[in-house]
Design brief:
- The longest helix is centred in the N-terminal third of the chain and has 21 residues, at 2-22.
- The termini are far apart.
- The chain has helices spanning 2-22, 30-35, 41-51, 53-57, 101-110, 125-128, 133-143, 168-175, 190-200, 206-209, 251-260, 273-280, 285-297, and strands at residues 76-78, 81-83, 157-158, 227-228, 235-236.
- The strands form 2 sheets. Strands 1-2-3 form a 3-stranded antiparallel beta sheet, with no helix packed on it. The protein has a two-stranded antiparallel sheet with strand order 4-5.
- It has 310 residues and is mainly alpha-helical.
Length: 310
């Protein structure tokens, strides 16, 4: 009996140690840090709009220049809890004004805070992980030019067991990767490759337009096929060239929608996509055209959400 007890204790300790090691936050390595350089704010503005920072972190209801006041506070209600994007203005006390470039890069590419804690993946770092170090440096430089805003957003409200952040380390082992989602042919046009980077990386389109597993990770085999809206009501549309998607849209139609918010059948953008479209409208026309080319080149899928009850 004594030997059995000892064996059980040893197994429990070994399991605990394995869990602790597997779930450790893993900051970027020295080689990636070496690739970072002082960024260029002018270039960073483009990445800022591509990344949709305003859509989540802007002051709720703000218009015009006030949208650049990144005070946070928008509530994202999910099955795992209510997540509240924080203040990411350059305020040194309540925002990210005291962060270093390394802190910023760790947050975007690894989902790790300056204090060494996991961020919840409501912050779309699984997509930002695909961003180029130079673009991250440029984005950081631009964000430092924005108006500092005092005041912190309310904390997220997450119930047990999701409140145990350490477990996110296991989630990252399953879902965090810097590899492309779609395997494009080597001879794919450069415009399509450019669009892939914008969509799969900073644009993080898959975070809303791709269905998720019961663990909350994107089901990449159904990439961009549409999903149940995070609020639990309605759906986010299929944007693949498949049936139910945007197969009838031309590249020109897609690019025009991203610029103007108007669809080919004269409908207009609505819901959470309004803020996203307003951000994308700031991009150069070549970027919107690249996004359109990529969306026409990806594998078609049927709708990734169940039919809505009437």
């Amino acid at each position: 009996m004594r030997r059995l007890v000892v064996a059980v204790v040893v197994l429990v300790l070994a399991a605990g140690l394995a869990f602790w090691l597997l779930t450790m936050p893993r900051p970027l390595d020295a080689a990636t840090f070496a690739a970072l350089h002082p960024g260029d704010a002018a270039r960073g503005e483009r990445i800022f709009w591509a990344g949709g920072c305003v859509a989540c972190h802007g002051r709720p209801g703000a218009k015009g220049d006030a949208r650049l006041e990144l005070s946070g506070g928008l509530e994202l209600k999910t099955p795992f809890g209510t997540f509240v994007p924080p203040n990411i203005s350059p305020d040194k006390t309540d925002g990210i004004g005291a962060w270093t470039l390394q802190d910023f890069a760790n947050a975007l590419k690894r989902g790790v805070s300056p204090e060494g804690r996991h961020y919840y993946p409501a912050f779309p770092y699984p997509s930002y992980a695909r961003m180029k170090p130079g673009d991250i440096a440029d984005l950081f430089a631009y964000m430092k030019t924005l108006p500092p805003v005092s005041g912190r957003a309310q904390p997220s409200r997450v119930s047990f067991p999701f409140s145990l952040r350490r477990g996110i380390g296991l989630w990252k082992l399953l879902y965090l990767s810097d590899k492309p989602v779609v395997s494009l042919p080597a001879d794919a046009p450069q415009k399509v490759k450019d669009g892939q980077y914008l969509v799969e990386g900073p644009g993080h389109c898959g975070e809303c337009h791709t269905p998720r597993s019961f663990l909350g990770g994107t089901e990449d085999a159904l990439w961009l096929s549409g999903a149940v809206a995070v609020e639990g009501k309605g759906h986010v549309p299929n944007i693949t060239p498949g049936k139910g998607g945007i197969g009838d849209w031309s590249e020109k139609d897609i690019a025009y929608f991203l610029e103007s918010g108007f669809t080919p059948d004269f409908d207009s953008v609505g819901g959470a996509m309004v803020a996203v479209q307003e951000d994308i409208a700031h991009l150069p026309a070549a970027d919107r055209e690249a996004i359109a080319a990529y969306l026409k080149a990806i594998p078609p899928h049927p709708n990734g959400y169940p039919p809505e009850k009437k």
